[in-house]
Design a protein that fits this description.
Helix content: 10-25%
Number of helices: 3
Shape: globular
Order of helices and strands: EHEEEHEHEEEE
Largest sheet: 5 strands, mixed
Length: 139
C-alpha cells in the first residue's frame, strides 16, 4: 500500500482571525486551544483532519508565493462530508447566516447531494452527502 498520512493539516490564510473563529464556530466547528494564538488557530474537522487558519502575515512566512486573491482566483476547494442531505443544508445555511456567501446552487444527483459556500475570506467549501447504499454491498 502506498503512502498513508496519519493526519491532514490544511493551511488557509485569513484576514481577521477572530472573525474567522466566530464564523466557523457559528457553523459548529471547534478549535484546539493548544494550537491557537494571535497568529493562528487549529480548527478541528475530525480526529485526523484539521484546518489551520493563519493570519495572512503569518501565512506569508511559510511561502515565497503571493496569497491568492480569492475574489478573482481559487486555489483550493475544501470538500467535507455530511451525514445526510439535511446536514448539508444545515451546515451551508449556518455558514450563510454567519456572513458567508453562496458559492453554487445545491446539486442533486440522486445518490449524491451537495451545496457550497464561501467563507469570510472567499475560500470555497463544498459540503456533500453520498448515499453509499446506492452502490450496493459486495461480499
Amino acid at each position: 500500500m502506498g503512502l498513508q498520512a496519519r493526519q491532514l493539516y490544511l493551511n488557509l490564510p485569513v484576514k481577521d482571525l477572530n472573525k474567522s473563529v466566530e464564523f466557523f464556530s457559528k457553523i459548529g466547528f471547534e478549535f484546539n486551544a493548544q494550537f491557537t494564538d494571535e497568529n493562528a488557530t487549529c480548527m478541528v474537522i475530525n480526529e485526523n483532519t484539521f484546518v489551520m487558519l493563519l493570519v495572512e502575515d503569518f501565512f506569508k512566512t511559510f511561502t515565497k508565493k503571493d496569497i491568492s486573491d480569492t475574489a478573482k482566483n481559487t486555489e483550493v476547494i475544501v470538500a467535507i462530508s455530511a451525514d445526510s442531505r439535511e446536514q448539508v443544508d444545515e451546515i451551508v445555511n449556518k455558514a450563510l447566516d454567519a456572513g458567508g456567501k453562496s458559492s453554487n446552487d445545491p446539486t442533486d444527483h440522486g445518490f449524491m447531494y451537495g451545496w457550497s459556500f464561501q467563507d469570510l475570506d472567499g475560500h470555497l467549501w463544498e459540503v456533500s452527502y453520498m448515499d453509499e447504499s446506492a452502490f450496493g454491498q459486495e461480499n
